[in-house]
Amino acid sequence: MSKYGKVWVGIAFLLVLVYMSNPGCALRSVETEHMTDITEATFAAEVDQAAGLVLVDFWAPWCGPCRAMMPELDAVAADFGNRVRFAKVNIDEHPGLAERFNVSSIPQVFLFLNGQVVSSFSGYHNRTQIQDWLERQLTRKDEF
Q1: What is the pLDDT of residue 13?
Q2: Which of 38, 55, 63, 111 does the annotation list as catalytic?
Q3: How many Å apart are CA 143 and CA 18, to the nearest integer?
């Protein structure tokens, strides 16, 4: 490796260290007001055995699109909270749940009705897209 290559590697390493030492670092949970953190221990009670609709976002702290979409989901949760429960699963902390639902890319959102997956989407969606998708699912609720 050339002298300049080593310098760039060193600079990149320092930037990563500075980023990770920042209190606002992406390696911590994203706080939301209207979404419940679900764990492998609580999934059965919160989702599998839940009556009605539950939206679950599978995400990871290092995922930029996941972190960008979280406030969008939280805003939708504030609007739809009386009709749908909203939850999130950190796949780094609960890989068994990600494996159970074959989560291969994140963010991935599942909509459950009475413990069964009835719809899903993956990738970043903004507030309007999420609202439109959820409204379509609510109108189809009787078909499930």
Answers
A1: 56
A2: 63
A3: 51
> Which tokens in the block code for residue 80?
């739809």
Whether 63 is catalytic is yes
Whose tokens are 């949970």? That residue is 29
Give the CATH fold of the 31-143 domain: Glutaredoxin (3.40.30)
Q: What is the dihedral of CA 100, 125, 69, 13, to 10 degrees?
A: 90
74-127 pLDDT tens trace: 999 999 989 999 999 999 999 999 999 999 999 999 999 999 999 999 999 999
Predicted confidence at residue 17, as pLDDT, reads 45
| Band of pLDDT at residue 1, cut at 50, 70 and 90 | low
Under 8 Å between Cβ of 28 and 61: yes
DSSP lists the bridge partners of residue 33 as none
**Counts of helices then strands in the chain (DSSP H, E):** 5, 5
* Catalytic hit among 30, 53, 66, 70: 66
For the chain, the structural domain boundaries read 1-28, 31-143
Is 25 an annotated catalytic residue? no
